[in-house]
Amino acid sequence: MTGITVKDVNPHAFIKAYAAYLKRTGKLEVPKWVDLVKTGTFKELAPYDPDWYFVRAASVARHIYIRKSVGVGALNKVHGGTMNRGSRPSHHVNASGSVNRKVLQSLEKIGVLEKDKKGGRKITQDGQRDLDRIAMTLAEDSDEE
């Protein structure tokens, strides 16, 4: 079964598996403030999941794998949500740029991403190989079932 890529597997299952891989390896540098911070101004509370930083990193890595070059602003828009404005109509609000920037920097430190000369970040060959390998194991697991 050759040629399985990230695009061929279920996105939810892939992000879950890659987040578990990032946590298991222990290479990803997690900031101290992770347990205190909200992920956007439209949120009322911090995430309940203690491993949310790994899930966000996996989501960002998959997002950049699929689209060639992505910057912080694009990630803010993707991870944003609707702001409850009381009796006024809801509007879309971008997510926290600091959180997304720190995720990109963490992924850059472990060699999954690199800065693109046109702006933004792109996936490295090593990063692409890691993501494809995890997608391959997911595809093999789903074939066995």
| Mean pLDDT metric | 89
**What fraction of residues sit in β-strands?**
5-15%
Determine the N-to-C terminus distance: 16 Å
Contiguous runs where pLDDT drops below 50 for at least 5 residues: none
Look at the helices and sheets and give the structural class.
mainly alpha
**The biggest beta sheet, please?**
2 strands, antiparallel
User: What string, H for helix and E for strand, traces the elements in order?
Assistant: HHHEEHEEH
Number of strands: 4
Shape label: globular
Number of helices: 5
Give the strand order of the largest sheet, numbering strands 1, 2, ... along the chain: 1-2
Helical coverage, percent range:
40-55%
Rg calculated over all Cα atoms: 16 Å
